[in-house]
Specification:
about 350 residues; alpha/beta; Isopropylmalate Dehydrogenase; 2 domains; ten-stranded mixed sheet; two-stranded antiparallel ribbon; 12 helices; about 20% strand; globular; binds nicotinamide-adenine-dinucleotide; binds 3-isopropylmalic acid; binds magnesium ion
Length: about 350
Amino acid sequence: MKKHILTLPGDGVGPEIMTGAKAVLEKIAEDFNHEFTFEEGLIGGAAYDAAGTPLDDETLERAKNADAVLLGAVGGPKWDTIDKTLRPEQGLLKIRKELGLFANLRPIKVFDKLIPASPLKETIVGGTDILFVRELTGGLYFGRPSERRDGGNSVVDTLVYTKEEIERIVEYGFQAAKLRGGRLTSVDKANVLESSRMWREIVDAKSAEHPEVKVEHALVDSTAMKLITNPAHFDVVVTENLFGDILSDEASVITGSIGLLPSASLNGEGFGLYEPVHGSAPDIAGQNIVNPLAMILSAAMMLKYSFHLSEEAEAVEAAVDNALKDGIHTSDLDFEGGRKVGTEEMVEAVMSYIK
Ligand SMILES: NC(=O)c1ccc[n+]([C@@H]2O[C@H](COP(=O)([O-])OP(=O)(O)OC[C@H]3O[C@@H](n4cnc5c(N)ncnc54)[C@H](O)[C@@H]3O)[C@@H](O)[C@H]2O)c1
Ligand SMILES: CC(C)[C@H](C(=O)O)[C@@H](O)C(=O)O
Ligand SMILES: [Mg+2]
């Protein structure tokens, strides 16, 4: 199979983890007889430094013409004080919006070997297998106005969702639940927010169309608690943009490190952008210590969701699992009896377990 991939390494640890993911994909292409071609583009602070904008139209066009996009991470203190409309994060929000990537899948999988690496009790962590379905192109992130008022004495952000935007992500949640354990938790703040009350009505209407899925509504605050007291309770969790952002970082604690969590941002028609859940980690950039597994597992999600190469995706996931089973891990993971390695060695270890 021939596929063309646009890589956007971005800022901070982005380039290091992208190098790792590309090496793994090249090994997959060689072993499984595919032709993957790569072209690289700029996003975030790197793009701002080069051309004064965090995402230019040409890169956006290249993304639209690629078979899939791999993204490292954007942002960092270097750009904290620049005009808010030019901040690295704006490039990320723009590419998600312009490509229509409304469904963000964030699987929370626990690797058995890493159960002791979680700060939570082993009895709590074991059996966790959650899929977050996060709405990615609406809500507070995109609502306007978003501005200071009264000479800086007040401020407004706007939360907007259309019925259609909620319906399509909720439908995605139901479809995902059908392919997994058949349980769907819809997370909202319906005791306070009108947007959440509309969200609940739509979930209830969809529930009637999908009677085989067991649905529960849950409030976001108590969900945050339950996630780390009883994560095995959850199967698929569907929620709006900001709640999904916060809850997925929280859920990373269950697994032992945010450096393990991949994500897929999909347009509902097979096209996707794949990126780790974590950010540019400026505190550890350039030191060969970043955990590359979130990026590598994001590449595996690309193989599965955009290229329908399930066997190849599973080969990558199994290689990650086997490297960890042998105790090979980066320094963000803390457990007894393993072998601590740098980023490059971690990538090599994963590659050595493919096939
Ligand atoms: N998708 C993205 O591009 C994305 C996501 C989140 C944050 N950000 C941006 O990244 C910048 C830094 O944000 P932050 O520090 O709040 O979050 P972060 O996720 O970058 O880092 C949080 C902590 O986790 C550690 N960490 C993250 N990924 C790791 C990995 N793979 N291996 C080992 N340790 C890892 C970091 O060292 C840091 O201590 C900000 O500018 C933020 O806007 C970007
Ligand atoms: C960098 C930021 C805009 C982004 C988000 O909030 O969506 C990040 O935190 C993420 O989780 O992908
Ligand atoms: Mg986030």
